[in-house]
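Reviewer has doubts. Consider these tokens.
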Amino acid sequence: PQHSDAEGEDTLPRVMLRGALVHDYNIGHWWQALTNSQHKAEVCEQTLALEHEAVSIRLVEHWLNEPEDAFPSGTFSVRTLERLLDMTLKAKTWATRNHTFKLLARLIPQTRRGQPIGLSVEADTQLAKLALNHSSQASQAAQMIGRLHSETAVQALLPGPTSTDDNETTQVLDALQIIQTTAGHLPRIVPVRLRWQIFWRHFQQQW
């Protein structure tokens, strides 16, 4: 098969970058040497899919140093985004968790309309759980849900019909307010009583 000159020129840097990440040697040099963003994205996806945790952590650290607009929106597959979320949830240190989640937040695409599922049922549900956590990442998770317009995620964070936990309700309202701000609206599955509470909160915040 015929290959473009650019693809041929990038063959060595692609192979060497994968090797550098695996062996933790001269990563910066080969990261810069691979200038084609599509080919670099392919290396990122392949590394996350095939290599062990320590290699993936090294990858994330260099990936974060790329400009935020280095890769066009939608460049990375849903499976890659799911892997980053899984890394976040299983991270053994706060730094790894923070870096991986920060990268995921950067890569989540902005959709224009509501959809039943953003990434996958499992991933959307995990994002909903993160959005209800008492952590600094809760608001980021809610923003991701808003960007994905995921009805599954919103459904997962809604309180049960018999819930009387005021703290739980406050967390839900916090998350829904961020989702509404990010997405521009809430899906129809959000009960009217919660919509009114969010509206009243917003009104009070303006004054």
Summary: The mean pLDDT is 90.
